[in-house]
Amino acid sequence: MSTDIEVTYRTHVLVRIVDWIFLKFNSPQQCLNSPSLLIFDDEWYVTIYPQGKGTENAGFISLFLRSKSRPFQPTTLRNRNIPVQISFSIINMYNKRCNTYSAEIPDWKWGSFNEHRCPRFISRIELEEKGLVIDNKLKIRCEIKIFPDGIVQNKVKKVSGKHTDNIYGKFGFTNFDLVVKVKNQEFKAHKVFLTAHSEVFAAMLKHGMIEASSNVITINDITPTVFKEFLRFLYTKEVKNLTLAEYQELTACADKYSVIELKELCCKEMLEEVSRSNAIDLLIFAEKYSLSNFKTELVRFISLIPSVITTAAGWNQLYSHPQLLKEVVCSMASSSEPASKRLKI
C-alpha cells in the first residue's frame, strides 16, 4: 500500500513524499516490494528485507531504494546524472517519524536501473523493543528531493572558528543581574526571564526575600547539564538533545518551577524513546508528575503489546499502583489483539 503525502514543485527541485505500508511484515518471505512511484517516467520503489540482506546483515532490516526506466518512455533527463536527496523514516503508532536515515546521491543516473542500499536500517531488536511493527505492518515514509538542473540547494554551511554554545539566544551575554549556583557550577541570568516564565522564581525574587537582595539562587537537586537546558528553554524555547534520563530530570525541574510548556516539550521527546523495557517505568513517572497526555500514550503503547509487557521486568511495579494497573488492564481488554494473548487476571 502507498499514500502520497506531498508532491511539491519548487524552484529547481521536485519534492515527493510518500508512505509505504508493508503488510505481513513478519511473514517468512525473503523480501517485500513496495508499489511503484512514477517520477519523470522512471519507476521508483523500495525493496525491504525483514531479516536482512545477506548473512552479514542478519538481525537488521535492510532497505533498498531502486528506480528503473519504463520502456518506450523518453524523457529529457534520460542518461543524465542528477543529484538526489533521500530520507527514510519509520512512522510509529503515534504517527510520528522515527529512526530517520538520510543520504545525498550526487549521480543518480536517469533512464537506467539505480539502487541505493541501506543494509542496516534498523535492528530487529530495536524494531520490536519500540513496538514499530503494528498488526504485522511496517509503515515507511520516504522523502525524495530531485534537482533536475544539477544544483543542490539548502546545503548546510560549515562555520569556521570556535563556536560558543549560546543558551541566551538573541539576548546575548550582557546585563546579567542574577547568578544561579547549581552544585559546582554558576550560571548567569536575567531576573526578568526567570520571573516571567516561572511563578516559583517570581516568588523567590520578590522584595524581602534573601535571593532578591543577594541576587544569588542556589539549587542542589539538579545537575548543571540539565539546568543549562532549563535555562536555554527560558530564553529560546529550545532544548538540545538529552538522554532519556536527562529529559526525565528536566521534566522534574520544569514541574518544580512550574514551567508547563517545558514539561510538554519533554514529553514529546520522551515519547520517541518509549520501548517495551521502559514503558512501565515511564508510566509511573508520568503519573507522578501529572503528565496526562504522555500517560495516555504510554497506556496505549502498553495495550498494543500486552503479552510482551506483562512478562517484562517492570510489570510487577504496577501492583504498587493499583489505579494505574486498572487503567492498563482496561485498555488491554479493549485492544485489538486476540483474546488468547491478553492478560488474564
UniProtKB/TrEMBL annotation:
SMART domains assigned to the protein according to its UniProt record, in alphabetical order = BTB
The record's annotation in InterPro entries points to:
BTB/POZ_dom, MATH/TRAF_dom, SKP1/BTB/POZ_sf, TRAF-like
> What does the entry give for GO biological process?
protein catabolic process
Which Pfam families does this chain map to? BTB (PF00651), MATH_2 (PF22486)
Q: Which domain of life is it from?
A: Eukaryota
Which residues does the UniProt record annotate as the domain BTB?
A: 176-243
In this protein, which residues make up the domain named MATH? 15-144
Q: What protein does this entry describe?
A: BTB domain-containing protein
Recorded source organism is Apolygus lucorum
